[in-house]
């Protein structure tokens, strides 16, 4: 009788934490390379120069806290408003600000994508058992719901569509939009809904199936104790042999 040897929750959490640390390190390294290649720091320097220039000209501090802003006198508030108007009329400052936002989105999205492809797609494909480095350390594996070794298509869907797009980039983009003032309460509600769905799927389902496994039709299993077939044909042939042996052993 074939059965699914589910991975223990604590092992999964430990492997996910280990992989998450590696993923963060890889994403930062890729981001540093992209920042250098795209000249990101140059736009930051230009914007900071303009902040310093107009801050000194109007006697204001663009980096003041909310409490400091609330304590401004009417004259200081008028100076701050004039400084922002001057900054907004400066084509170089506006261009640097727009490029900073665009490059932030590009660098964040591409660096995270490259990290996922390296650690969650290429490495598992090399190990041939759907194992990331964390899963390999904690003796976990990956297969599809038919007990067959996970293929490249399923692994790509799991990594890019599930983990990268829905579970990472959607929340990251929402956070960035909240930070830049494009979203408010709506963004927070969407973040909470995504977190709630992920938590329910992971903790409340029998197979502890998060979004990425649900989309790809995959299961995280205890690797040493789980029988995994190379193809569906191998799995069917095994079941037929088991059925034949069981039938032969029954008395007539």
Strand order of the largest sheet: 1-2
Distance separating the two termini: 22 Å
Say what oligomer this is: single chain
Nearest-angstrom radius of gyration? 26 Å
Please provide the ordered H/E string of secondary-structure elements: HHHHHHEHHHEH
> For the residues shown, what is the average pLDDT?
88
Tertiary shape: elongated
Helix proportion: over 70%
The amount of beta strand, in percent, is: under 5%
What is the number of E strands? 2
SSE order and pairing:
Blueprint: H1 9-38, H2 40-58, H3 66-70, H4 74-88, H5 91-127, H6 133-137, E1 140-144, H7 152-179, H8 185-204, H9 211-216, E2 218-222, H10 232-249
Antiparallel strand pairs: 1-2
Characterization of this structure:
It is a single chain. With 252 residues, the protein is mainly alpha-helical. It is 73% helix and 4% strand. The chain has a two-stranded antiparallel sheet. Helix 1 (9-38) crosses helix 5 (91-127) and helix 2 (40-58) runs antiparallel to helix 5 (91-127).
Key features?
252 residues, mainly alpha, elongated
Compose a concise summary of this entry:
The protein is mainly alpha-helical and 252 residues long. The chain has helices at 9-38, 40-58, 66-70, 74-88, 91-127, 133-137, 152-179, 185-204, 211-216, 232-249, and strands at 140-144, 218-222.
